[in-house]
Amino acid sequence: MNAIKRAESMFEQLRYWRRYIHAHPELSFNERKTSAFVVQELKQLEQLDVKENVGGYGVVATLTSGRGPVLAIRADMDALPIQEENVHDFISMNDGIMHACGHDAHTAILLGTAHLLHEQFVNGELEGTVKFIFQPAEEATDDYGLSGAPYMIKEGVLDDVDQVIALHACPWQPAGVIQMNHGFSMANVDVFQTTIRGWGGHGGYPHLATDPLWMLGNILPAFYGISGRRISPLDTVAASIGKIQSGTASNIIPSEVYVEGTLRSYTPAARYQLAEEVENIFKMSESLGGSSEFYLERGEPALNNDSDVNAMIEQAVKRIDSNLHIHWSPFGMGGEDFGYMTEKVPGAMFFLGCAVDDGVDRDLHTSVFDVDEQCLPIGVGIFVETANNFLNT
Q1: Cα separation of 288 and 282, whole Å?
Q2: Which residues are bridge partners to 377 per DSSP?
Q3: How far apart are CA 302 and CA 330, in angstroms?
Q4: CA 34-87-373 angle, 5° bins
Q5: For strand 183-186 and strand 347-355, is the pairing parallel, antiparallel, or unpaired?
Q6: Which helix (H) or strand (E) holds 265?
């Protein structure tokens, strides 16, 4: 039976998994119950070797015939600190926490993939190894600046892997549309903090102070003019300030102002240049009578989709359903720590259309995010067929 038809036959199960996980979301580094639920469902499959608490609350399940190539398939499990405003009957039961990025769907799809590939291994239809990676903490970093993927990599989950694949819910495409892209497809993510220092004073006597807020006012035009002026418009970059803190009272000129923002880029060269340019721009405070301190936290690297892995996914999409459409385009300036995995081994992620056709903007990381659950068997079918392509090649 066609992979997508097999996936459609288990639609009710896929929907149950997705809705249960959606109703019980957990934040990054705290996915204890989600992990336990995944383990419970996986241990029903007798040939799966299931390992718990990998890189935190991660789960790795392995199917193998003992020889042949090794494919890893990854899904993330964590939720976001957002209060859900949907009204369906499986709304989040955890106040202030919501699956607003589709990780509930990702996890359900990978559970379904494990069940269908397990059938094939039991029947002797496949040779090789498939590792199902249920990853914690994609959405946040810890005190060391690390998310879940690097911790799982450190524990060796990719050491024997030849290729790795993943998917992401895509609310700007309808179910039945798959978005793909070769090469850099999501951004390097860096966070900067800088403190501009001057000499505070009385608000009525500004000429006797060295005002760091005045300095920042002169710096901001240069900061927002980086792209296309200091960095080539052919390079994909974005620089944004999200936090400014200063002052204690209306009549006191503060002695310092704290600024925090994000830097996004696609290529390693652009990533390095962007950080250097931003640091130099804040050094303008020195010529204005002040000083600055700059700190950069390197986040996840850009997602780099391997063209050969993409070719296997594309072949799977075309084979399982002629009505599926592939839209070729980069995924945007969002970050995705799957980029750590594509640095380690050849890999690719595709975006799975999931838009709900109700006229509401249900974008990623919003309080009304939702998915058209018809995308669930499509995701399973693509994963299963891609695994078959890989193991039979």
Answers
A1: 11
A2: none
A3: 11
A4: 60
A5: unpaired
A6: strand 256-265
Give 348's strand partners. 165
Domain 188-298 in CATH 1.10.10.10? The answer is no
Residues in the chain: 393
DSSP string, 87-120: -STT--SSTT-B--SSHHHHHHHHHHHHHHHHHH
pLDDT at 106 over 80: yes
Token pair for 49: 């070797």
Residue range 259-317, pLDDT digits in tens: 999 999 999 999 999 999 999 999 999 999 999 999 999 999 999 999 999 999 999 99
The residues near 163 (Cβ < 8 Å, ≥ 6 apart) are 69, 71, 72, 306, 309, 312, 345, 346, 347, 390
Tokens of 190: 């860096």
Residue 116 pLDDT grade (very low, low, confident, very high; cuts 50, 70, 90): very high
What is the DSSP code (8-state) at residue 24? S
CA distance between the termini of the chain: 20
Q: Two tokens at 248? A: 């204690």
What residues does CATH 3.40.630.10 cover in the chain?
3-184+303-392
Q: For residue 379, give every residue at least 6 positions away whose Cβ sits within 8 Å of its Cβ, in sequence order, or none.
A: 105, 109, 167, 352
For the stretch 58-93, pLDDT in tens is 999 999 998 899 999 999 999 999 999 999 999 999
Phi and psi at residue 268, to the nearest 5°: -60, -40
User: Which pTM was predicted?
Assistant: 0.95
Distance, C-alpha 148 to centroid of its chain: 11
Query: Could you say which of 1.20.120.140, 3.40.630.10, 3.10.620.30, 3.30.240.20 is the CATH number of the domain covering 3-184+303-392?
Result: 3.40.630.10
Distance CA 243, CA 261 (A): 7
pLDDT (tens digit, 9 = 90+) per residue, 221-269?
Answer: 999 998 777 888 889 999 999 999 999 999 999 999 999 999 999 999 9
Query: Which residues of the chain are in CATH 3.30.70.360 domains?
Result: 188-298
Secondary structure element (H or E) that encloses residue 220, with its range: helix 212-224
**Enclosing H/E stretch for 305:** strand 303-305
Unique residue bearing structure tokens 């259309």: 353
Residue 22 · residue 104 · CB < 8 Å: yes
d(CA 303, CA 84) in angstroms, rounded, equals 29
